[in-house]
């Protein structure tokens, strides 16, 4: 019975295959409501060891496009030093790459090579940021922005990092970036910066926050104007700008006012003391009011005093969970933060591990008794 059923099923499948027209052989029918996949694209990606299931899950529409350049795109990547595994990874992550015309990809490659030391380095960038490289819709804007930033004598390494991390900055007209750079230059010089160090300062800002060029010039002026009204000197403002990097352009005066008012009241400090606290912990300016309130009360709940927070305001940069964990770990070695300094609590994870390690070593090391008799190894 089973053999008869199997034979009938095979015969039925053969009849169905004969009924399918030849024109449909290049496409895979998925469902009546979906555009059929281009079987040539699917087969070409499969030959490159691309995970088709991953592409179908996240970018299925790419497989349905009538035109694609899979082998040509792979050839360009291979020419830049990519092996089979890297090519497959790039096309899985950004399958839209196969829809780019080969001549456009070649032009884009030449453009990026102008800011990369070699093709191998460019290949590393493409592997990490494929979408940035295969965005080909604003080639002329990209070219003009590269030439402008190079005219400022910014290093090609910084420009390449900007193109990879913030491609939107290069897709827009160069006049917009010129306006932001002009505002940054005015800000730096108005705050007492030296013209000779302007290029280094700009490169530092751009490398620390690649999205700096996307911030409106007016936002810089509004934030700095508010801080001037709080009594910060030009030197102090320059320090804040350098510490906050491009984040200062994201700050709204009303939000900064709320944060400063809360800190002033919570720590019962004067205006001058408040300025010192902000200089030591600029992050206070961009934390939301609910975040500051929760972190401050969390410190009070574990017995930390107001004076301790005033002396080590950087503790407010840490979440309540991290502070509790560090306090408990220090307590296990006999260090009570309520009677000591919070400096051992603040800082990065590495900073804390170093402080914690010193305490641990201090506890394990025996005290030296200068009057005890010395013993030799033989004794």
TrEMBL record:
Keywords noted in UniProt: Transit peptide
Name of this chain's protein: Mitochondrial transcription termination factor 2
Family in the record: Belongs to the mTERF family.
Domain of life: Eukaryota
Short name of one Pfam family: mTERF
InterPro entries hit by this protein: MTERF, MTERF_sf
Keyword Transit peptide: yes
């Amino acid at each position: 019975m089973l053999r008869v059923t199997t034979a009938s099923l095979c015969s039925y499948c053969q009849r169905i295959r004969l009924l399918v027209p030849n024109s449909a052989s290049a496409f895979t029918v998925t469902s009546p409501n979906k555009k059929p996949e281009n079987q040539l694209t699917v087969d070409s990606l499969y030959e490159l060891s691309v995970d088709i299931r991953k592409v179908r899950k996240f970018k299925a529409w790419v497989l349905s496009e009538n035109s694609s350049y899979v082998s040509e795109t792979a050839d360009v990547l291979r020419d830049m030093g990519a092996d089979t595994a890297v090519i497959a990874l790039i096309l899985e992550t950004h399958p839209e790459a196969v829809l780019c015309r080969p001549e456009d990809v070649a032009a884009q490659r030449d453009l990026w090579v102008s800011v990369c030391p070699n093709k191998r380095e460019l290949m590393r960038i493409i592997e990490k940021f494929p979408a940035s490289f295969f965005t080909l819709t604003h080639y002329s804007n990209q070219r003009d922005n590269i030439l402008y930033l190079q005219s400022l004598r910014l290093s090609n390494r910084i420009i390449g990092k900007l193109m990879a991390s913030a491609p939107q900055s290069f897709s827009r007209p160069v006049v917009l970036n010129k306006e932001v750079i002009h505002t940054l230059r005015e800000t730096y010089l108005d705050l007492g910066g030296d013209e000779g160090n302007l290029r280094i300062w700009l490169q530092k800002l751009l490398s620390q926050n690649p999205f700096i060029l996307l911030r409106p010039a007016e936002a810089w002026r509004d934030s700095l104007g508010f801080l001037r009204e709080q009594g910060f000197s030009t030197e102090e403002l320059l320090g804040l700008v350098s510490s906050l990097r491009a984040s200062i352009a994201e700050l709204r005066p009303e939000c900064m006012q709320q944060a400063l008012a809360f800190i002033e009241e919570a720590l019962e400090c004067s205006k001058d003391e408040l300025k010192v606290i902000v200089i030591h912990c600029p992050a206070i300016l961009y934390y939301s009011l609910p975040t500051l309130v929760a972190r401050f009360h969390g410190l009070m709940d574990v017995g930390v005093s107001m004076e301790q927070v005033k002396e080590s305001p950087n503790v407010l940069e840490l979440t309540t969970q991290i502070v509790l964990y560090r306090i408990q770990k220090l307590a296990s070695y006999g260090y009570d933060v309520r009677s000591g300094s919070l400096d051992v609590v603040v800082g990065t994870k590495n900073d804390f591990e170093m402080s914690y390690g010193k305490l641990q070593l201090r506890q394990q090391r025996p005290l030296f008794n200068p009057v005890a008799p010395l013993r030799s190894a033989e004794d």
